[in-house]
Amino acid sequence: MSDRHFGKVALSALIMSLVSTSVVxxxxxxxxxxxxxxxxxxxxxxxxxxxxxxxxQIPGRVLNIQGDVGTMIRxxxxxxxxxxxxxxxxxxxxxxxxxxxKASLRNSQAQYRREMIxxxxxxxxxxPGMGMPAMMDIYMTRPMYEMMGDSDTxxxxxxxxxxxxxxxxxxxxxxxxxxxxxxxxNAHLKNALSVAPFDSMIxxxxxxxxxxxxxxxxxxxxxxxxxxxxxxxxxxxLADNLHKGMIVKVIINSKLETKARVAKIYPIxxxxxxxxxxxxxxxxxxxxxxxxYAKIFLPSASSxxxxxxxxxxxxxxxxxxxxxxxxxxKGQRKLRLVRLGAEQDNGMVSVVSGLAQGDxxxxxxxxxxxxxxxxxxx
Length: 378
Prior knowledge:
Number of domains: 4
Order of helices and strands: HEEEEEEEHHHEEEEEHEEEEEEEEEEE
Helix content: 25-40%
Number of strands: 23
Shape: elongated
Mean pLDDT: 80
Radius of gyration: 47 Å
Strand content: 25-35%
Number of helices: 5
Largest sheet: 6 strands, antiparallel, barrel
Structural class: alpha+beta
Distance between the termini: 54 Å
Low-confidence stretches: 6-11, 13-25, 126-132, 369-376
């Protein structure tokens, strides 16, 4: 075989290879109408699952704060303590009042029992006596005294019993009052100690050791950081596309990409900014810190409407205007200018104008598409 003949064969094989590659690379796709996957990116903040601010319940000086910002505290653990010296003095006074009331109650009960057993109305020591023996006074002097209308033994006994019973009741009331004062002091003593209502981290300190606080003044802010959330103020038009349990894409600190679930949508919008607060739950093992910035990708307001989509690979490269090759009824490629919209998932892009649903276009257009049966459509 001559070198010239061999060269022709090789050239023919190369041409066939290029043509075959071009044919395989190109394919015809149909313009489809799908629901838009366009997204709007909004900023949000990582927050603890729940937060609580502990405030002072009694006035006094702060004696202790358990740790600095970032310190973990178990549920029921001491967070802060306020000076309770004055309360301790009131507690001692209340305990003394209790002992006094107990002694008074014992004496009143003894007097009542004495009146029951040995009534004062039958005591002859207060009678005139007339110098006669006690027996004569019981059987003669007292009946004669009652006949004269100067005394009533039954009424006197009733009055003495009521007097003794009243003493017992008063003593019991004084004892209960003393106990109430002690319970009140003990409650204030508990308020002098601020404890963690759940396993939490100190997020902020509003006072320092030695500061004097008043009731209602914030001391520390705690947060449950085992579980984390995102909080975002979302425009009302976008919030309408959300529902509880919906999964959205988020990027934390501009590098950590993860998912979040819509946990709570507040029912009331901000009357000034016209936004609705929405909270999103993050996965438990997501490495995020409270206060970090996060981006949330939400469905746009127009995502509920169907749009025409085509593969981005069908766009002709190297042209200043976006264009594709559309197949006409005769199977000819026609250049068609298009106006593109937002990018969609899976390498698709929406088309605003230039094509209609059902049009057939060339995907992965090759150089061969620039020759042959091609003419521009207007």
